[in-house]
Amino acid sequence: MGGYAISVRTGSCPRRRKTSSSANGSGTGACTYKQIFTPLYGRGLTYSNMKNLALYDELVESHLADVTSRQSSEKQVTLVTIGQQLLKEYGFTQHQTYLRPSHPEPEKRTSALGTMVCVLISLRTTLENERIATTRLFSAFPDPRMLVKVPQEIIAEHIMPAGMATKKARVIQQAVAFICREYGSDFEELRGKTVGKMREMLLEVPGIGPKAADCILELGLDVPSFVVDVNVFRFTARYFGVLGDDPLDTGNAEQLAQVKVFLEEDLLKDALLFQVLHTVYLLHGKMVCKSVPKCRTCLLRDTCITYRS
Length: 309
Known about the structure:
This protein is mainly α. It folds into two domains: about 20-110 and about 225-309, Orthogonal Bundle (Endonuclease Iii, domain 2), CATH 1.10.1670.10; about 110-220, Endonuclease III, domain 1, CATH 1.10.340.30. It contains 15 helices and no strands. Helix 5 (about 75-90) crosses helix 14, helix 6 (about 110-120) packs antiparallel against helix 11 (about 210-220) and helix 12 (about 230-240) packs across helix 13. It is globular. It starts with about 30 loop residues before the first helix and ends with a helix.
């Protein structure tokens, strides 16, 4: 580790003045990347010169342990404990793909508006093609506000690898223009409002659906709004038996909303906690709890409600 000795407690969040927040609150007091990794950047230790991501995950593990000690119900503890098990299996930091303000890798940081653009590029494409398209677009236009005046065909040309380039170019330009005009380029009009209100306002943006809105909130604005994609949905619904005997339907908006409520209703409103659980639940759903689940190799099968039934 290059001589750096950092205890597990180094990664703990600084305590903040206690403020009131409800289940739909803005999550004031939640810990973000900027806080948990400040001790590293303060010492000049960066993602790019460290080469070993284990220390970053150690800090994240410390944060989850701290969060677990503050959960007040059996369900809360279970949600986080399962996350801790999956974190040890998959890791966390190396799976952070979207450019965003609080990305642990300095060269992958951008504004919340930039995160929104990344989210829109990523829709219905592979991770590899998303990365290629994002790199091409941001290399040419590092400030996403520039996209308001760029001809749509130029945007489409840069994001071509992600597919549906013409449609996405139009949606990206319209969404960026709407945000800058109505909410401020740094989402000033949204900040400080409840999570529910922020989500409602984002859903008014042309081209922004529920999943995109949650991605922008959770990753771009460090707000605790759980992203439920098909992988998170499958794993959560099966492991916790959220839907009972009802067959899983990844296209059923009502079922997706039910799983989202299940995940959010009791968890501590902590942005980093939501980011970690989202990442590891997604990875397990993608790699093990697939459409045809690989139950024999699942490390959680003995406690999975669906498997046991």
